[in-house]
Design a protein that fits this description.
Elements: E1 30-32, E2 42-52, E3 59-69, E4 73-75, H1 77-85, H2 94-109, E5 113-120, E6 129-134
Antiparallel strand pairs: 1-4, 2-3, 3-5, 5-6
């Protein structure tokens, strides 16, 4: 096992309740993957995602599915929760949100593979689902 003193975990174990004001102010904390020799999948399900429509300012909500195969680093889930909650007052198009989350996860963890799927609540009678992959896959 690796020495935990070299980890960058600051939220876990604290009763912090102040959420970051935006995704730019949030940090995805990581820790060493203790099984880097194996391909395994970490799946996160976040059913209470919210953001703002950049045109109308109305709230958008979604269920997010995040899945990745870690290499050397794993994302710490409390920091992921705070990061995702930081979108609540952020005006963004649904497609941009899914791609931003994937980009930020890849930047933080450098996974072998990753995907982010956002199932957004219907607006105007249309349900939008956006999905992004790393590495990019052809449709």
């Amino acid at each position: 096992m690796s020495d935990r003193s070299q980890e960058t975990i600051t939220l876990l174990g604290r009763s912090e309740s102040r959420l970051p004001a935006s995704p730019d102010a949030a940090t995805l904390e990581t820790f060493a993957n203790r099984n880097p020799q194996r391909n395994y999948t970490i799946s996160l399900d976040y059913p209470e995602f919210s953001s703002l429509c950049p045109v109308t300012g109305q709230p958008d909500s979604a269920r997010l599915h995040i899945s990745y195969v870690p290499d050397q680093r794993c994302v710490e889930t409390k920091s992921m929760k705070f990061y995702l909650a930081s979108f609540r007052n952020t005006p963004s198009f649904n497609e941009d949100i899914v791609n931003r989350i994937l980009d930020d996860l890849v930047a933080a963890t450098a996974p072998r593979r990753a995907s982010v799927r956002g199932e957004f609540s219907p607006r105007g009678g249309i349900r939008l689902t956006a999905e992004a992959h790393f590495p990019d896959v052809a449709l």
